[in-house]
Amino acid sequence: MDYVLYDERGLIMMPVWCYRDPRTAVGVENAKARVDWPTIYSETGIQFMALNTIYLLAAEPPARLAGARQLLLIGDAFNYFALAWRGTRFRSPAPRSFTIRRLKRGRRNFSARWV
Fold this sequence. Notes:
By secondary structure, the protein is mainly alpha-helical. It has one domain: 2-Layer Sandwich (Nucleotidyltransferase, domain 5), CATH 3.30.420.40. It has helices spanning 24-34, 37-44, 53-59, 62-66, 74-83, 100-104, and strands at 3-6, 70-73, 98-99.
């Protein structure tokens, strides 16, 4: 797993996919159709690897993402499972937990092409 999606009630949206799932190939193609590689690299700084979160999210059906209220990366999701606390204060100063709505509204300086 790379991330966990939560619905409006705060429940996990199943299934939760493993980052090695073959559907990542679809995500790579979906991302390439929307944003070219130089732009991805300049905005994220990530190297190309099909298992990066960006490609996993690009493989998600749009309706499933539209129904998500929150996304937690796997480490943060484990903290939530263990502590019933959603957030990232103990991990990193970087913003790692964000709401899908904020992404859709363009906050956090994400390119409009991503959402």
